[in-house]
Amino acid sequence: MNTDTAKSPRGFYSLPSHLEGDNRRLNQQHEVFRLILSSSLLHTPVSSCFQGFVLDVGTGTGIWATEFAAEHPNAQVTGIDLFDPLKSAKGVPPNCAFGVANAEGSDEEWDSVVPPGSFDLIHTRMFLMILRDARTVVERIFRALRPGGRVEFQEKQDPYRSDDPSPEAQDTPLLRHARLRVEAAARCGLDRAVARLIPMWMAEIGFEEIEAVEYKIPIGPWMEGEAMKIAGTKYLECLEWGTLGFSKTIFIKGLGWTEEQVLGNVRGAVNDLGNGKVYSPIMFITGRKPARSM
Q1: Which of 128, 176, 220, 260 is the most buried (most CB within 10 A)?
Q2: What is the pTM of this model?
Q3: Which of 22, 10, 6 is nearest to 242 (CA)?
Q4: Which pLDDT tens digit goes with each residue over 210-251?
Q5: CA atoms 40, 41, 44, 45: torsion sign
Q6: Is 225 buried (19+), middle (13-18) or exposed (0-12) by CB count in 10 A?
Q7: How many structural domains does the chain have?
């Protein structure tokens, strides 16, 4: 597992770089989201005839942007990331393009790639939680939308939780690890539960029609329904591949742990994956820029 972090002027990305072998996890994670959204790409329905300009911020391997473009051939889709997504994107349709941008860079850098008032729909997934200045990125997204344009933030809200309220189910190696990861991230200036703040920020910035809905991604095939069982199995595999990468840097920097301590803790958490009714809360937060923007 690669644990390199991508440096930026305001912080660092604590997730493994998809340019360093993490493509499989990112693409399988995308499949999980498809499953919990009943095969959709968004919580908010969008017509297949949609003709607007779409931006995918933190596009990763480019799979969301590529699939949205394929399903909406009249739309113009752009995916941006800190690294060039074209190196990993496959089967890119003609109405999909990719670019490089640092969401936490200067306003001038952002505006040169994402001109103000240029997009009808903006999407992010599990992106704000890895930034040190997430509110500024929400402001930039507002600025990038055309009047009447919409945004959908798909944000994981750590730590993991259990549907079993018993004390022993709330104190497992996996849940203890997840709580430590929130603490370690906070000491590094990252808020792994930033989803709870996004609706408030959106209201302050000027969004309207704000809605926040929580979904559960099961860790393991314990939830009812065939789609959720498949989602849980796939998500468990994602965590088997990625837990060390999510944790190593922030545990060392934030908690002062040695690499050996991190490996021991992660080993216990990974061995506990699939036990109990544990899930990852995912918030789908949507909003609209006023038609007559202030």
Answers
A1: 128
A2: 0.92
A3: 22
A4: 999 999 999 999 999 999 999 999 999 999 999 999 899 999
A5: negative
A6: exposed
A7: 1
